[in-house]
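Methods — Computational structure assignment.
A single polypeptide chain was analysed. Its primary sequence is given first, followed by the predicted tertiary structure written as structure tokens.
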Amino acid sequence: MHLCIKLWNTFQNESTLNLFSIMETVRIPFYAKMALIFIGVYAFIYALFIGQTIIVPIVYATLLAILLNPFVNFLVNHKVPKIIAISMAVALLFIIIAALLYFVSTQVSMFSDTYPQLKAKTEATSNQFIGWISTHFNIKLTSIKAWIKSTEDLAFSDAGMVVGKTLVNLSGAMIILMLLPVYLFMILFYKTLLLEFVRKLFRIEHHSAVVEVLDRTKGIIHGYLIGLAVEAVVIAILNSVGLLILGIDYAIILGITGAILNVIPYIGGVIAIALPMIIAFVTKDSMSYPLLVLAIYTIIQFIDNHYIIPRVVASKVKINALVSVVVVLVGGMLWGLPGMFLSIPLTAILKVVFDHIEPLKAWGFLLGNIVPSATKFSFIKIKTLK
């Protein structure tokens, strides 16, 4: 109780909310600090989770507003009214998004057309595989088929839950798509108001640091989103050329779809490989074609991970690979597929903020991709007693 009164008195004496100065002026035991930190982090993450329907569209709109802002400024500087300039920018963006959705829908309809052929070929291959197992391992066909039947029943019992989760995710995506243009227009229209609000949150002596953080954040978002677009174009060309060389049907559409899926960090690349392998399995008589598709896509992924991403995308965000994998998984658990895409740019922005706050610079260093050649700590060699 006494500690809370001291914190409150210190807060009342401060003209601006400065958590770190309060923590320094009031002596708090280490375990109490850690407890406060864990409680605060838990409350913050829980708020992000329960408020994702509102927060996710706003975050997407903010990132896209930063990307579209130069185009809006260009139109305004050429005597186009602000409202019309913003409307043109938003309309252009959603035309591009509609084109991408068209390619995805074409891909889905293509798979629906090939589904009967895929089912028949899968059953024939499965029967051959079951016969091979029965012959070489001396297992009765009836036992194998009974085990497959029980496994299918278990899978179908869980299918309802999977469908339910899919419908929830689709409904969430539709809400985001409906709210996104509204948020995007408002953020671009009230840009100066929002920036002035951020400026007024801090004291005058901190304004230069705030401006630097905002400038670096804008540069990171621009570089990351443009880098993703360049990466998608390069990967689409490589995918399409590779599939055309193999003679796979729908090569260009598969190549473009794979590039779009590849935008999703780490997970999208796996899905992108599976789609053309399925088409190769259905449309070709030899099993060598799916394996060749796997080999070509593995080579493309190697080029992407070791040459394209480090130079075009990762050079902008400056986040190390370990942190990238962790935050993508955490983003997926927190916000699903949108969270996986947002995790890396948000982490990059968080690193910029950490780098400008003295007590948090160590965490900013941890998130970064600068690996020291040697540690300054000296290790103590423990000699065993004889």
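Note: The longest helix spans residues 82-137.
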